[in-house]
Each structure stands twice: as structure tokens, then as C-alpha cells.
Amino acid sequence: MASMTITIPDGILSRVLDGIANQFHYDALADGTKAAFAKQQVIAFILNTVRNAEVQAAASSAGVTAASNVNSQVTIT
After folding, report:
1. Which of 21, 26, 41, 58 has the fewest CB within 10 Å, making it most exposed?
2. pLDDT category, 61, cuts 50, 70, 90?
3. Which residues form the domain of 58?
4. What radius of gyration, in Å, describes the C-alpha atoms of the chain?
């Protein structure tokens, strides 16, 4: 299995965590640590990006197939 590592310098870690926390509405009571929350947001971003790309590709393919079927099966005289 492949893995992915993101390295953030210690000097800017708090800025990165604060930025993600602010952007994605971090709630300390519900979301655990900022680091855990940030990790979950990055994972969710990757999963959503792949899912959206695959859905878009499937929809495009289905549209091409449907158009082809209509063009070859419908005859107007």
C-alpha cells in the first residue's frame, strides 16, 4: 500500500492548523485536537476529489453512450 506524508515545518505548524481549523469550522469540543481535525480534513479532501472526478467521468461516459444509442436507434422519416 502506498502512503503519503506531508511535512510542515515546526515554525509554521500553528498557522497551518489554525488556517485549516478556521476554514473548516473546527469545534474543539466535537473535533478533538486541531492536528487530528486537520488530518481528517485532508483525507476528506482527497476522497472527495477522487469521488467527484470518478462521478464526472462516469456521467460523461454515460452521456456519450446515451447520445450514441439515440443516434443509432432513433430514425425519423
Report:
1. 58
2. confident
3. 33-65
4. 22
Q: Helix, strand or coil for residue 17?
A: helix
Vertex 21: Cα angle to 16 and 26 (nearest 5): 160
Measured at the CA of 35, the angle between CA 33 and CA 40, to 5 degrees, comes to 95
Q: How many domains does the chain have?
A: 1
Q: Considering the domain boundaries, does residue 50 fall inside one?
A: yes
Task: Indicate the SS3 state at residue 3.
Answer: coil
Residues ≥6 apart with Cβ < 8 Å to 28: 34
- Residue 60 lies inside a defined structural domain of this protein: yes
| pLDDT tens column, 35-53 | 999 999 999 999 999 999 9
**The whole model's pTM is what?**
0.74
